[in-house]
Amino acid sequence: MGKYVCCTGLLKNTWDQVCIAFWQRYPNPYSNHVLTEDIIFREVTPSNCLISRRLLTKTSRAPRWMERYLPKHMTNSAYIIEDSVVDPQKRTMTTLTWNISHARLMSVEERCLYQMNPENGSWTEIKREAWISSSLYGLSRAIQEFGLARFKNSVTKTMKGFEYVLSRMQGETPSRTLAETATERARETALAAKEKAKDLASHAQKKQYV
């Protein structure tokens, strides 16, 4: 049985601002592990919903005890599919992300719902759910605990990244960090491996949002 976690976050910005920031949130000082992002497809439905699929390449350093179960070339990187639906009428944005690499070792599926805060229409509420599982016999519990801890840490960084991008959008330009500069070379390195993952993403099964 896998792990399930649910949490909420609040951004003191309008839903429109948060949606714009969502597409501009990389790079930022809190997402140096995100090396590349590519749009696989995008379309507008008859009801004016924007549907997108992106492929994200991330660094994903596994703990030493886990590295023995991974191919050598996959111990430092991970490929993530991100599906999203933006509904301007309901003023909601729903995202679903899941990993297509290391999936047998550990699968992490995350669903986020962005909507106006019911108590303040100028703020945006984020409901975040995640399901973490592993099918590795004998180590599944330890791997799930590791995945849960990493997920909780990433939520904090994600919110800080949003706040950084929103501040930059509003003219409060933060200074460029050394980490941002150093990460550029890593992004260039990841471009070579990205094409193979694109093919996997284009054939991946679509997920359901509701």
TrEMBL record:
Q: Which domain of life is it from?
A: Eukaryota
- Where does the PRELI/MSF1 domain lie? 2-174
Q: One Pfam match, by short name? A: PRELI
Q: List the GO cellular component terms.
A: mitochondrial intermembrane space
Protein name, as recorded: PRELI domain containing 1a
Q: Which organism is this protein's natural source? A: Poecilia formosa
